[in-house]
């Protein structure tokens, strides 16, 4: 019985892993029975696959699609729902950033109507759509001192004026070189990435060449479309080198899961074809106005023709954020876990006399809401907009939308006024909205993951790319649980793990250790990898004592460990014992009292919240 329960819980975790990791293998793409172009399995696998020097790795979003993401049903403002992925395992959101430029064999059985430019009201705007050629060099998260083998991809972008282009963030992820080419031109021009919004999957490019902009007319942004409005998707997808145009209608407008950033923002669902390489291309209305950016599709054996467009409201937020701050800061979060109040008895118990409001179940310790909100509060309004008992607010005429939509309209640092009911009394409080602090980040900023090597013990922070690269089985159940359901208790907190041990005489007996969280060094709880490096550097004791989960202890002689460093680095061809960011002086800006060693059982998010649609993040 215990084994059955454990297996059941592990299946829940691994399903959630597929949702959070957001990446599927290219062989998985080939198994889709609803591929719009009916590309053969061999063609797609060869088309998308890239080699690796160490192992058969999978492509990330920039050249592929996201793995097993569920349709978002929970109401939040951008913090991903922590629960079991819904639907069958074949269901997947996929970001189609580009197509690998390898030789390929494929055949077509075109089922989507290809729209000729002369059938459009105004074909001039097609010249503003360009093809993007990107060379990617991803970090090797398992061997963080080196890079993976580079690969190339293609995508789409379009001109927005002032010498700038707009595309998807996953199209230029881990870029080392970006080039663009205009329609009808055979010259490629070097582009610079000015900003990447991972959460909204948008990137801003610039091209300095004046020749590139000769005769160019930027696109005009339109308003949010209505249901059944005609929509035209333009880009450079799989199947040819020239521009492609497909047509459909607006099927749905709601808060949608963004596969690349694992966030939830306003999205437009359409039935026009979106294929690999379409990402970053514009979607037009019948009036020739750009209504958004194509960025992902939903694949399942049960559905077909479901594509997604980033609306101009999200695009404008990204651009305004960049103009305000000179960089992209991200969409803000309220930082609370909410529960719907649909049950009359629950509302009566909380002394809520109207059919509205959502219950505060958890408050993130790193959010400003932790200062003014308490568990058990009921949020009934946001900036004087009433919040319904299902966590929705009015949207346009005769429509409702998730409460988190209002939060996504704010910018980092903005103040929101919440109307709450606490113990039957109504009051108003003000909260500063800021981007969420992730304990385990979805994306690693900078070109290289942090790492520290001590006597062959390789320490690195836990991240979603590392989990993806190492695979779920090797990471282990406890780390998976913490990465999915634990919250950061203070800014800068990290889960530091021993990823592997580089065998040497000094670490004899520890060689089999891998992917275990280190909790303490010489009795001091570890805040993050910079803190660990500082503790080791300042240690004067005879022994280095590392305490891991499950009370596992590693002891090394300090002088022997220091003497072995040179030979270990030489034997394994490693340039440095630590990443460049750990060479900077350590500044302790964290409160020691906030450091806690917590097990999964003490996680701020309980097991009961896994797979329960009545709970939602905001």
Break the fold down into its secondary structure elements and pairings.
Layout: H1 2-21, H2 26-30, H3 41-48, E1 92-95, E2 99-100, E3 129-136, E4 151-161, E5 164-167, E6 175-181, E7 189-197, E8 202-206, E9 230-235, E10 244-258, E11 263-270, E12 282-284, E13 290-299, E14 307-311, H4 312-325, E15 336-340, H5 344-349, E16 358-363, H6 369-372, E17 378-382, E18 385-386, E19 392-394, E20 400-402, H7 404-408, E21 415-422, E22 425-432, E23 452-454, E24 457-461, H8 464-470, H9 472-475, H10 477-485, E25 496-501, E26 516-521, E27 524-525, H11 529-537, E28 543-548, E29 553-557, H12 558-572, E30 615-617
Antiparallel strand pairs: 1-13, 2-4, 3-4, 3-6, 4-5, 5-8, 6-7, 7-8, 9-10, 9-12, 10-11, 11-14, 12-13, 13-14, 15-16, 15-30, 16-17, 17-18, 17-21, 19-20, 21-22, 23-24, 24-25, 25-26, 26-27, 26-28, 28-29
Helix pairs in contact: 1-10
What does this structure look like?
With 618 residues, the chain is of the alpha+beta class. 17% of the residues lie in helices and 28% in strands. It has 12 helices and 30 strands. Strands 15, 16, 17, 18, 21, 22 and 30 form a 7-stranded antiparallel sheet that branches. Strands 23, 24, 25, 26, 27, 28 and 29 form a 7-stranded antiparallel sheet that branches. The protein has a 6-stranded antiparallel β-barrel with strand order 9-10-11-14-13-12. Helix 1 crosses helix 10. The model is unreliable at 1-91, 100-119 and 597-613 (pLDDT under 50). Residues 47-98 are annotated as: Disordered. This is PROTEASE DO-LIKE 2 CHLOROPLASTIC. Belongs to the peptidase S1C family.
């Amino acid at each position: 019985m215990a084994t059955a329960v454990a297996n059941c819980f592990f299946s829940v975790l691994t399903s959630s892993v597929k949702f959070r990791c957001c990446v599927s293998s290219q062989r998985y793409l080939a198994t889709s029975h609803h591929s719009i172009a009916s590309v053969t399995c061999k063609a797609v696998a060869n088309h998308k696959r890239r080699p690796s020097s160490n192992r058969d790795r999978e492509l990330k979003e920039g050249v592929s699609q996201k793995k097993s993401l569920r349709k978002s049903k929970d109401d939040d403002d951008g913090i991903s729902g922590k629960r079991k992925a819904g639907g069958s395992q074949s269901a997947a959101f996929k970001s189609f950033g580009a197509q690998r430029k390898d030789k390929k064999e494929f055949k077509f059985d075109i089922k989507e109507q290809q729209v000729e430019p002369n059938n459009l009201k105004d074909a001039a705007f097609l010249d503003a759509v360009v093809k993007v050629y990107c060379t990617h060099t991803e970090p090797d998260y398992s061997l963080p001192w080196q890079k993976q083998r580079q690969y190339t991809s293609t995508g789409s972008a379009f001109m927005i004026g002032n010498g700038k282009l707009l595309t998807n963030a996953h199209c230029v992820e881990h870029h080392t070189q970006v080039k663009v080419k205009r329609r009808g031109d055979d010259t490629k021009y070097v582009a610079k990435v000015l900003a990447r919004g991972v959460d909204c999957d948008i990137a801003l490019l610039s091209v300095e060449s004046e020749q590139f902009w000769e005769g160019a007319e930027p696109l005009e942004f339109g308003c949010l479309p209505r249901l059944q409005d005609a929509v035209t998707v333009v880009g450079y997808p799989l199947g040819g080198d020239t521009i492609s145009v497909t047509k459909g209608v607006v099927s749905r407008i709601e808060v949608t899961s963004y596969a690349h950033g694992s966030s939830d923002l306003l999205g437009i669902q359409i039935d026009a074809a979106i294929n690999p390489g379409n990402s970053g291309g514009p979607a037009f209305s019948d009036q020739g106005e750009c209504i958004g950016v194509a960025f992902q599709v939903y694949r399942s054996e049960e559905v077909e023709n479901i594509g997604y467009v980033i609306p101009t409201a999200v695009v404008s937020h990204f651009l305004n954020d960049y103009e305000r701050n000179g960089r992209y800061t991200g969409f803000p979060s309220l930082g609370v876990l909410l529960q719907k109040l649909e049950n009359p008895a629950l509302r009566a118990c909380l002394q809520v006399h109207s059919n509205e409001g959502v219950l505060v179940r958890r408050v993130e310790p790193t959010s400003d809401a932790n200062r003014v909100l308490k568990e058990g509060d009921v949020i009934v309004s946001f900036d004087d907009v009433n919040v319904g008992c299902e966590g929705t607010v009015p949207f346009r005429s005769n429509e409702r939308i998730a409460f988190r939509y209002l939060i996504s309209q704010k910018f980092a640092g903005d103040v929101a006024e919440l109307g709450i009911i606490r113990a039957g009394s109504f009051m108003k409080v003000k909260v500063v909205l800021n981007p969420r602090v992730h304990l385990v980040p979805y994306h690693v900023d900078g070109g290289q993951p942090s790492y520290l090597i001590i006597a062959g013990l390789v320490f690195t922070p836990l991240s979603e790319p590392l989990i993806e690269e190492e695979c779920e089985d090797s990471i282990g159940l406890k780390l998976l649980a913490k990465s999915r359901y634990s919250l950061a208790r203070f800014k800068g907190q990290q889960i530091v793990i021993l990823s592997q041990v580089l065998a040497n005489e000094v670490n004899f007996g520890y060689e089999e250790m891998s992917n275990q969280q280190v909790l303490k060094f010489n009795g001091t709880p570890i805040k993050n990898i910079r803190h660990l490096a500082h503790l080791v550097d300042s240690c004067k004791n005879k022994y280095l004592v590392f305490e891991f989960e499950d009370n596992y202890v590693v002891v090394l002689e300090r002088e022997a460990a220091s003497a072995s460093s040179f030979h270990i680095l030489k034997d394994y061809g490693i340039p440095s014992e630590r990443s460049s960011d750990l060479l900077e002086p350590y500044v302790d800006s964290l409160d020691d009292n906030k450091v806690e060693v917590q097990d999964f059982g003490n996680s701020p998010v309980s097991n009961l919240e896994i797979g329960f649609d009545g709970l939602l993040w905001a």
